[in-house]
Write a structure and sequence with these properties.
4 helices, 0% strand, mainly alpha
């Protein structure tokens, strides 16, 4: 099954005529079925977490982190990736942006927890600052939101495929 949607209910291949969730055989790509409201809510929560984390990293980068070797460029990369993933989660109805959000959150939280315990590229951070706590909470929100969105969307997709078998 492709990522664009379920097979037609009438058992046809979708190559002739138009069926729900499919476009005519004019060469235009198929249109995926709409996501349920809960999936959109979870994608919105995920995007909010990603965008807030990106904003905090960009703020810290501009406030002086750009002068730190290795970590400075990583903060800028984190900001760019967070903004890009936050937008992709909202506009691309596919599981890949959600998987990217999970990877982003795990990597960012991992780097943060390393920096607060043993150090990360000679940076030893504390957990007490407003930006640190805000970013950590935002990343946890993005991680949990993306995981739940994947579960909701995969459960819906597997339920749809069983109905059409």
């Amino acid at each position: 099954m492709d990522a664009s949607g379920p097979p037609p209910a009438d058992g046809s291949t979708g190559s002739t005529g138009s069926t729900a969730g499919r476009s005519p055989a004019s060469g235009t790509p198929p249109v995926p079925p709409p996501l349920p409201r809960g999936a959109w809510l979870l994608r919105g929560v995920t995007a909010a977490g990603l965008l807030l984390s990106a904003d905090v990293h960009l703020f810290l980068y501009v406030q002086g982190y750009q002068d730190i070797e290795v970590v400075g460029p990583l903060f800028l990369l984190n900001a760019v990736a967070g903004f890009a993933l936050g937008l992709l989660v909202l506009v691309w109805r596919h599981w890949l942006p959600l998987l990217g959000a999970i990877g982003f959150s795990v990597a960012t939280l991992g780097a943060f927890y390393l920096s607060t315990t043993v150090g990360f590229f000679s940076v030893n951070e504390t957990v007490g600052g407003v930006q640190q706590v805000t970013a950590a909470v935002a990343e946890w929100v993005a991680l949990v939101g993306a995981l739940l969105a994947l579960v909701v969307e995969r459960r819906r997709a597997s339920g749809r495929s069983r109905k059409h078998v």
